[in-house]
Amino acid sequence: MNKNRVYNDWNPVVLSLLAHLADAGFRPLAVNNGDDEIIPVYQPREAADEITAVDEAVLYVKGNDGKTKTLLIVLGNEAWESVADYMAGSPELDRAVDAFSKEWETKRTPKIVNWEISDGERAKRRNYLKRA
Asked: Is residue 44 packed enough to be buried (19+ CB in 10 Å), middle (13-18) or exposed (0-12)?
């Protein structure tokens, strides 16, 4: 019997956050995804990949003022709650996080399906392909 497992797809959520940050003049610098190492990132996709690899990550961004800000990203609740904490003191950052939260407040977290195939079904498919 095949089983389907449904998981949250955090990529659209994190990419949306990064787009709101970019619109406010912030670009990703690095991500700490739980290890002691801070990983430099140069593109939003790189940042998203590092953030979505874990449940909790710290995102470092640089604003137009040249100052570095940090955001704590926690994946696992509702999408609009993904930014669990961030450095205060920047109206631009406040607006970006607020706009992100407002965008996702009424949306459900996107889902992906992992199709699990039983060993018996795998064997049937292998045998079928051998005969073909």
From this structure: middle
Structural domains of the chain, count = 1
Structure tokens at 1: 């019997």
Q: pLDDT for 12-47, tens place per residue?
A: 999 999 999 999 999 999 999 887 789 999 899 999
- pTM value is 0.79
Note the helical H segments in 1-132.
Answer: 11-23, 44-52, 91-105, 119-131
CB-neighbour burial class of residue 69 (10 A; exposed 0-12, middle 13-18, buried 19+): buried
Tens-digit pLDDT profile for residues 76-104: 888 888 898 887 778 999 999 999 999 99
